[in-house]
Amino acid sequence: xxxxxxTAFVLAVTVxxxxxxxxxxxxxxxxxDKQNNGYSISQPHEFxxxxxxxRRAWQSIPVDQADLPVTxxxxxxxxxxxxxxxxxxxxxxxxxxxxxxxxxxxxLHMLSFIDTIPWKPVDTKYFPVVKSPSRFEPPHxxxxxxxxxxxxKQIWQLELEYLHxxxxxxxxxxxxxxDAGFSNFNNLPSFLGPVANGQIIASRNFVQKNxxxxxxxxxxxxxxxxIVANWPDTLMGGAPDVQIILAITENAFSETRVEEYSWIExxxxxxxLGTDIINTSLxxxxxxxxxxxxxxxxxxxxxxxxxxxxxxxxxxxIISVTSAGNSxxxxxxxIGAPADASDILAIGAVDGWGQLASFSxxxxxxxxxxxxxxxxxxSQTAVQSADGTAKLGYGTSYASPMxxxxxxxxxxxxxxxxxxxxxxxxxxAGDRYGSxxxxxxxxxxxxxxxxxxxxxxxxxxxxxxxxxYPNPVSDYFYVEIPEGTTGRLDLKMFxxxxxxxxxxxxxxxxxxDIPSSLTPGMYIIEINDGMxxxxxxxxxx
Length: 541
Fold this sequence. Notes:
alpha/beta; 7-stranded parallel sheet; 5-stranded antiparallel sheet
């Protein structure tokens, strides 16, 4: 049984440390619940934007307990004890605090609302209703004639110009860049058009906790140019008409796990604003304080909090695109957090000829999942420099936004696809899809082929009338499909990479057992009655 709220005097008693030490004098604690927080999942407009709700509704994703804000009275109680509140997370339901009083940190577990184990949400859901007739903007009626300049090679490698020529430029898609800073962004030639057009819809600095994102590091400036630049004859982004959110989560002058919680808080904020895609060109393996370093064994998608949160983006209907890391030619060599997350796209780097960049971090994850998922040009990539010039850059940091921008364009073309379906098509378009490895992943995706392949399916039949419960699932589930479907049916289960992991004939209605070997994550269920295909997603706990 939990003890009642204690006074600061009693808290001075020293017992075993209960919080996870993140950095010097900084600890992470879970809350036990979200009781009395003043919100209800049946009134989601109070904490999620209409755009965020429509993104969920379009993909049949419910609002759940993880979406609820943390209980403010819990946070206030900790602050009243003299703790500095660094970051909170509603997805993980916890708080990051700093205190020089180690005895205080050691005894927080005695508070009634503090726990030492991860919080598990109550299985309650609310399904929002679609109000918008269309998710994204239609294509240009007269396709723009882009003059790519230095960006041509990186665009052509993905055959993204094929979609541009059909009028798709990412218009109406909302993409978030989480990075170290966007120095001089609002004054540079690549961004004059996007700024004037109002494409930058929000910005926030989660490190310094203010709105200043333009007077910091320039890494995010270069990353963003690969997505949204519109500097004819010099630089052109993959999705020059996309709407964009800019957020600083990385402290460029230190390396601590605190930055992971800046990222988590920023991702939750972007979700609440309705982002469709998140680009993350950063990663974590070792830190200034070596006692907090990760090991390769931690790269399982379930250890680092940033990786756990990154995996959760898929269950919100967001596509997370994350750089694999630049440790390929070091003793570490493997991908870092949060690229080890499940249900995302981790991106490796190649040069303009499709050869692996030596620095590109390699897979697999410690639990033997293929990483990276796909690769793009991250060697001699054309980017905007903060000094106003165009330059060539190196790093998976630059490969990731290539895929993020291209994915925004493809999603604009096929807005009826869910996030995990779209990721599946991108992976299937990889030039090594038939023989993936731990360097290139499934290879360099060809967006022309993905566009053409998707055009051959009847999108109106996807995830229509197929209800799965319970979902998330543990050991088994039941399926309801429309009336008129009788007899035996073909059932197939795929991972988000399009790999077939289970096939069976079933008779409806009936219980369907989950393969015992199935690991936690998101999967696609497809049922064929001989005439129609029904498709939906399940989440395995």
